[in-house]
Amino acid sequence: MAIVLGHPPFREERDAILSRLLCEVVETLDTDTIRAREFLFRAVALVQQPRVPGSRGLAPWQARSTIALIDRDLGGRADITRRAANVRLSQSHFHHAFKQCVGRPPRQFIIRRRIQRALELMQNTALSLSEIAHTCGFSDQAHFSRAFRKLIGYAPGMWRRSQERVESHPMGLCARLIYGHQSVGEK
Hints:
By secondary structure, this protein is an all-alpha fold.
């Protein structure tokens, strides 16, 4: 499930998404607590999404341009001034419009994108955690570990080891084939 961009969904749409997320939590809670926790984070983010009447945040082209710039520069600085200038807005207006559009401030969004990228790298590469931290734009491994633990609830090394155990377990492959397990950034 991708991060929902654009305007906050209508109540019916939001309720359907929330229902699907909670069903996923129930289905995965006993077998994959990390994945169940990811679904819960998404449900909480959806519920907390602000509803500001008459205000729409960024225009669709501004949102697409900003997200593309963020994704392209994940390893660099989280420079809000440059992102605001990219869509021809002042820093203050950009910050408020971005938060209305995406549901969280730009810096928090960037941290989440960095963590999503780190999750992909931990699953698909043998890079060390310090290399992953640097690649994803964190100042050092300690900064990466604090942000990761705050968002995911586990230390990066512990999360990586738990994924390796699932992959090496014979039922891990079966579960992936049956349930179509995907990483955080793929849905």
